[in-house]
Each structure stands twice: as structure tokens, then as C-alpha cells.
User: What shape does this take?
Amino acid sequence: MRGLVGVLLALVATAVTGVLVLNIVGQSGVAQPWDSELNDDFIFVRALPLVLGLGVAYGLIGGWVWTRSTARRADGAVRRFSGATVLLHMLITVGFVLALPTGLWQYMGGILDVQGPLPVFMYYRIHYIGAAIILASVAAFITYWWMTGDRSLLLPLGEWRRYLRGFALELPPMLRARLASLLRIDLGQPAGSSGAFTFYEKTFMFPGWSVAIALITVTGLVKLLRYAVPIPGTIVFVVSTLHVTAMVMLILLTLDHLRYYLSRWPLVVAIFTGWLPPRRTQPRSAPEGASAASGGGD
Amino acid sequence: MKRLAALLALAWCVVNLVVAYWMVTGAFLAKTAQHEGIVAQASLLLGGLLVAVFTGLLARLSLRILAAPDEATGA
Assistant: This one.
């Protein structure tokens, strides 16, 4: 019952936001003399509070519907993700599928001096739609984690050394030795348990995605606002460079994300169903005790 | 399902190889040197090479999954 009410609330919130955004689109189409590209920029800036508000609403609904539930099913499957995380992961994926290729084309098209099949403003428009979806998803994730109090993807304070050791132990031998030598990690010591997620996820993947998404969001917002607020050219140049850097980081993280999870199929199943299948609840190269023992991810 | 996922990943690899090629060749264009400078050239080159390496790792895994799905995916 709660799930159905949650879905209805989410649909209503989406519809209300859609109507308000369409209202902004309608106003700008009549009142502004700018070209399509700049027009879209202003529409996106004005729609941002609505987009973030929608994300917060999704997070609140998610936190209300999916309270912490049983970590282990009768058939032995272990809960890794809640329904909210599964849905928000899908949503943010759609955002990336729209924003990443269009952003890449905006940059590479300029470098290569090539005109793509679509008019330039269309790339920006799709990019803004994708960015809006990503922003809404990020706002939703943060609200959801705040509401449920889930911190299972975060490194516990003061345990950096142990987590770096666990991370090194999950790497291929050649990389492991180099990292251990570089960071002076004693690989002879046991790493212990990493909790519901692997050391690789908690030490590299989640921090990497967080930094890249934060960087691309902040720099993207500054790039957007430069038409509304005077920003010195040097800052715009630095910010644009960092935006492209974040884009390359996201391309690399996406490739690594796919490589890591495709080689651990139960984790692919988990991100679509929320449950690690019973036959093999211990993902490959997960540390001793991870997942199966701890259960209850986000 | 695993083979379908591997095929999609391979398609993603093809796209990323094109991206890597664009980035590496873009690093050596006269226009990049004139307009963007050496830092952008170095970034494009490094970024392109990294994308190529990461793409290679994913492509290798995808091909392994196509050949032996259960063995390559740990399930």
C-alpha cells in the first residue's frame, strides 16, 4: 500500500514539476529575443530549483516507502540495494546516457571542427535534459541517504589504512604490489570486513563517482550562470577545463564500472532486483565476510 | 542475458574507441595547439590513452563472457 502511494506521489510531483517547467519554456519562447541555445540555457537555469526540488521529493518518498527491511530472504538471497536505490540508479543512468555523449560531442565537435547530424542547440538541449535528470537523481540520493541514515558506502572515519589495505588486496597482483609500495601498505596484515560493499567500491568507486559528479555539477552550474552573472574570463576558462576533466573521469569510471560489475554477475542482478542471488551471495573477490555477513546495503 | 550484456558492452567499447581516437588525434591538430595550448593537448592525449586502456579491459572481459559466460562472470 505504501509503495503504491509512493509511486502516485512521485508521479504527481513529476507532473507538477513538468507543468511548471513547461510554463517556463512557454514564457521564454514568447518573451526572449535570444537564439535557441541561449534560450535553453536560461530555461535550464530557471528550472534548476524545480529540478532539485523534484529530486528532494523523490528522496523523501523513497525514504518513506523503503524503510530498512529484512537483510536476508528465506531462500538465502541477501539484500544489497533498496527499491529506491534501484530506481534512482536507473534514473541517473538515463541522465548519463543523455548528458555524457552530447557533452562529449560539444567538446570534440569543436576540437575536430565537425558539424554533427543535429543542429548545435539540440546537443545542448539534450545535454541540459540529461544534466537535469542527473541533478534530480543526486538530490534524491542525498535526501534518501539523509533520511534513512544509511552510510554503508562511506569509509568509516579513522579506518583509511585498513580500507587502503583491503583495496590493494582486491587489485591484480602487479598493481597491488606497486600501490602497496607507493603508499607503504603492509599487505601482511589482514584487512578485515568491508561491510556490505567491497573495499574497491568503498575506497575507489564511490569516492571517484562522488568527486567526478560533484566536479561536473559545480563547473556546469558556473558555466550556465555565466550568462546571467558576470564571471571573469579566466574563471570561465578554468571551470570549462575542469568540466571537460570531469567528463573524461566519468567516461573512465563508466568503463571501469561496467568491467567491475560484468565480471561479478550477481552484483548486476542485485542492481536490478535489490537482492544478491542465493546461490552465490559472496561476490567474486569480495573480502571475507562482505555482503553475505553484513547484508543491508542502501 | 550475460551474452546480451557482453554484446552491449562491446558496442559501448566501439563507441569509446572512437572517442579515444578522436581525443588522441585531436591532441595533435594545429587548431588545438593554437587555440587551446599545450596543456589541453597533453590532457587530450592522456585522456585518450586512458580511455583506450579502459576500453581494452572492458572489451577483453566482454569477449571472455561471450566465449564462456559463467566462467567469466563469476556466477
Remarks:
- The CA atoms of residues 218 and 297 of chain A lie 28 Å apart.
